[in-house]
């Protein structure tokens, strides 16, 4: 059996450590004599409280894993039965390897959108060629109108489709088919249609929620005179599962840990009471859990509550806000700001830039955590470049402790979530998940580029499962599986024979 192509990318390339800053007090930083003396006792208290309130010892992890399992069951039993939507993906057959032909994928899910084409050659030749392009989405489109966003995407797709040649061949008379990865909560109504329930990850585009996103894309493609057919609408987790399963039959779960987070898994149709006995031909289907909405038993701090209250979706996506890349930097910024205000962490200078929401990003935390030098020079540079604070060795050490507390909780809770899913599958299949090799395919920048986060996650899984069972659970990076996966699902659901 072939295995999923894995990539080991070092964090250094992606999260570049910036050069030391010019040490001039910048505009907005008011320096005073003796500025870098911090009020150690209140900084210490804030740090201890943070570590205490965000701690995830084994009993907390166990509770989270069990609650995840229970919420999955409740969501499968009744529509709206739990925080977890447990969305039916209408993907009842995973790629077999026999898929042949030219297919496209379009991936919208975060700050970028990607277009991809793939020439599939069946069992023998597999993936003959791929080509892709990535376009960043202008910030204003994330809060503009539905038409503006979909016109932008359709335009990108049209431009990409124009230059097709070389190894890519569309048989005469065939319409191009595209797998549309749309990574937001969508209530699927068929394999090629689904209603957007709400935006997540900072998107607040007007006029899409409550609409079929494939219809939105089709209308935009018509406006561009682009003749393509969406043959599969999939969540990124579902794309990742399909992409990874193409190479390895042991893949049963896919998890995205990036800007946002989510997981999907292979479920038996007879274990879905909501289906009232309707079975798929294969007896299985993929369930998109939308676990970002999970909230049961998560240890939250005052910083999480404040961030949530200030967000565009208060009270929603609590798991996502605790473990995913969009939010970790912002939680750390809030802690550092409080330490600066109440404990003079950065001396008596008041770092005004530190009051700007989301100015400190998760890649900044990651880059800081890679600094092993004695004077933590890189930590100082990153803090300065991102927030204009002047730090000394002791405030840098505190900043690292803050990052670690937040990242540790995030990674460990992600691990507990994974065990929650595996546990549910194992209980229902009477041991066939833990008793043999089971692969969890992972994707997303946070998982890929943040070694500390990844390590915390992996160790939490091992703590919860114990060493023997852990040996059967393989957590594997499946890079860009979701793009190829969507194209594969477009092939599986093609209107043409292949
Ligand atoms: C969305 C999911 C998506 C995940 C990862 C979440 O915010 O709700 O649909 O799978 O992000 O991209």
TrEMBL record:
GO terms for biological process: glucose metabolic process; glycolytic process; intracellular glucose homeostasis. GO terms for cellular component: cytosol; mitochondrion. Belongs to the hexokinase family. This is Phosphotransferase. InterPro entries: ATPase_NBD, Hexokinase, Hexokinase_BS, Hexokinase_C, Hexokinase_N. It comes from the Eukaryota. Residues 49-246 form the Hexokinase N-terminal domain.
